[in-house]
Design a protein that fits this description.
Organism (chains A, B): Bosea massiliensis
InterPro entries (chains A, B): FUR, Fur_C, WH-like_DNA-bd_sf, WH_DNA-bd_sf
Distance between the termini of chain A: 49 Å
Strand order of the largest sheet of chain A: 4-3-5
Number of helices of chain A: 5
Subcellular location (chains A, B): Cytoplasm
Protein name (chains A, B): Ferric uptake regulation protein
Number of strands of chain A: 5
Order of helices and strands of chain A: HHHHEEEEHE
Radius of gyration of chain A: 18 Å
Family (chains A, B): Belongs to the Fur family.
Oligomer: homodimer
Shape of chain A: globular
Chain lengths: ~150, ~150
DNA sequence: CTGAAACTGCAACTCGTTTGCAAAAGCAGA
DNA sequence: TCTGCTTTTGCAAACGAGTTGCAGTTTCAG
């Protein structure tokens, strides 16, 4: 079990949750995922380790992890939520519309402006969601595209 | 029927769609909505004018309007999509987490930085989604409307 | 080692949204 | 106007991600 997974598990225990075999496995899978998988994908990876673990359990566990702040759920495109282990450092996401891949980035400048905008509108900023959608810049040949 | 609704239905006709009574009514409701209603809410408003119009028709019509670029669908929180008539001027949204109200805003500075970030990551920015979540700073006269 | 409380698998359910179908209506052209 | 070919509609059933009730299983404090 990875380091990160152990942190996840121990934090889970501290949150008053019981540590079970399914949760260990799910924590492990989530902790080592660097590609923002969705729940069915996590389920697939979990099933490779223990096929008896059910999809509901994966949903339930991810939900618990999320409510304890151990993982984050994002919705980039399509209906299903994509999961990533929570990180200390806040970041936003760039969604590659051609491959569905997700790139993380961070812009203090944008963050600063967001807070400013909210304040000007008379609001205390409690959170935000910024997703950029884009396609890879073709260096040599242009791809087929719409105008 | 409002001006904006007439524009909507005439553009709809130009897109090769037939103009029907349900579509007129839905166009009217959507065109005069300034509060980003969700589809069930649009259905409610439509039903006040003609209760025989079905929810499916509202969904279908909103979908057509969206695919023709006449209205936009956003997802701020919760599962349901919220609708607004398309506007020439691009803007982002601030979501009042206390009332569910949506405030539109625009920041050229943020837009500029977004394109810059994307470019630095090797992407052509094709779109973005920025939603700020916040709560009202001071207790003032609030004119928030729920969906 | 025990047993109350928490957890699990399963199937059934929710809820926003979509779809198959037969009936109804729009919109050319005659 | 009327005709007839499409498109559109209402209904109900279907969909898909996610949730939940239940009964049996497991955890872990004592």
């Amino acid at each position: 079990m990875s380091d990160a997974a152990e942190v996840l598990i121990s934090q889970c225990r501290q949150a008053g949750q019981r540590i079970t075999a399914p949760r260990r496995i799910i924590a492990d899978v989530v902790a080592k995922a660097d590609d923002h998988p969705d729940v069915p994908e996590i389920y697939r990876r979990v099933a490779e380790i223990d096929p008896t673990i059910s999809l509901s359990t994966v949903y339930r566990t991810v939900k618990i992890f999320a409510s304890t702040g151990l993982v984050e759920r994002h919705s980039f495109a399509g209906g299903r939520a994509r999961i990533e282990p929570a990180s200390e450092v806040h970041h936003d996401h760039l969604f590659d519309i051609e491959s569905g891949a997700v790139i993380e980035f961070r812009s203090d400048e944008i963050e600063r402006l967001q807070a400013l905008v909210a304040k000007e509108l008379g609001f205390e900023l409690t959170g935000h969601r910024l997703v950029l959608y884009g396609r890879p810049l073709a260096r040599k040949a242009r791809r087929a595209r719409k105008p």
